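Researcher: Good morning. I'm working through a list of sequences from a screen, and I'd like to move beyond sequence-only analysis. For each chain I'm collecting a predicted structure so we can compare shapes side by side. This is the next one on the list. No need for commentary yet; just the structure.
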Amino acid sequence: MELRARRLARLIGLAGALAVAALGAVPAEAAELTRPVVKNQAPAGYLLTPERAIELADRSAEVRAERRARPSLAPTAYTAEPGRWQVSYFEGRRERVQVILDDRLGAVTEAWTGAQVSWRMARGYEGAFGRTLNAPWVWLPLCVVFLLPFVDPRRPFRLLHLDMLVLLAFGVSHVFFNQGEIGASVPLVYPVLLYLLGRMLWAGFRPRERPEPLVPFAGARLLMVALVLLVVFRVGLNVMDSNVIDVGYAGVIGADRVADGEPLYDGRFPESNDRGDTYGPVNYLAYLPFEQALPWGGSWDSLPAAHAAAVAFDLLTLAGLLLLGRRLRPGRDGRVLGLALGFAWTAYPYSLFALASNANDSLVAMLVVFALLALSSAPARGALAALAGAAKLAPFALAPLLIAGERRLGGRGFALAGAAFAAVVAVSFLPFVPDGGLRQVYDRTLGFQVGRESPFSIWGQQPGLEWLHTVVKAGAVGLALLVAVVPRRRSTAQVAALGAAVLIALQLAATHWFYLYIAWFAPLVLVALFAAHRAPSRADMPTPEHLAAPAAR
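Model: Good morning. Structure tokens for this chain:
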């Protein structure tokens, strides 16, 4: 019976993965630590003894300062990797200071306190996320390319200029993050998110058509050429110079477990990624075709399956935007809109950041874009809303909006979309429920995400703001429910704007936030902004009487 259940789970997993394919973070593994047994003898291949390593670490300013505040700190020396030592200072079981030493030089190379002890990604290691993409000579030209087609010098104060600049303004925070200064990087994210939230609420509740060209000077052919070049650049960068962070690694591990008929949520992911089972089943199913084609070797190696999956999610998001433009506008205007959306996605540094990190965040982008494409079909949009949520959980917040579609909740369409949503959620999760039941699934996924501490939000850095955090969380939940009924009727562009607002509000309330999450709402923001622009028609042109009026005076 158990074997039959495993075969059924595997079959459903393969079918789910094929369906997703048809529809469509620690920076690196920490070094393995070894604690030498003999304290006054150098381990084989090392020059320093554990005692000497501790003596050298004791001299660092960080250790001295921490010991003044906590005299009971107890040091432990480990060999971290060939030629390196790690000395950890514990207060009880909690590590308060971590010092890295060069064995040959007998010198301290790194010393960390506070959140940077346990959060390696907070240390500003060069190239930890995205590698060469972070270099100014790559990042800044990409920002210029992103802006260039949409700049109209004849209208210097048009709102789109500001909107595009704000989308790039995450980079100010990112500079501080790359320097390991999370005390500055984290607060700088919130003004950008708040502006985008307000802008999307305005576009969703008070849409305004702007009779001015979206792309003032570049024609469809030029956009197409630029788009192709950008795609080649992105894929080439992924193949030649990108790394796989823990997020992509988790997808490959989960896909391998599904293929082997092993449980997903039994807490048995490898120690190198022991919380990799924090996502929904669709995430692992989406990686399944790639892991089967490029099998996992059992360790955190180059992970070609993660690269292939990230590229596929990215290209499918691009394809969805190209199609969506043509769905929103007929004829040539639709082709230009689709090309503009595709160009902006491929030129946007933060969509490339997700691709260069080989994360799963473009999977969310892909599914929400496809949900917009399927908006006119109640079962399809309900199913896609479920797939997005069952991939990375947070998009479940979009369910009320997407189930309602272009009309508020109620009627036959709502019933069909809701039924499709419930069916896909059940089919996605039930085959992977472990012996511990749904409670164990919750504890390993959403429960872990909600309950963990993180220094990557103001809520994590400022515990005294808990009252405000509660207000923001309530507001995010309220907004997700409100947009299901208000406004009564809405266009696809309004649904995109309101969907972006829901995701941004959710991220404002999140205890853990990271730049990869920008990819979730970026395509929706682009759709909302770009769809408001249309080429001026004859009705918008001044009449002969208007032209003659100044002369008459």
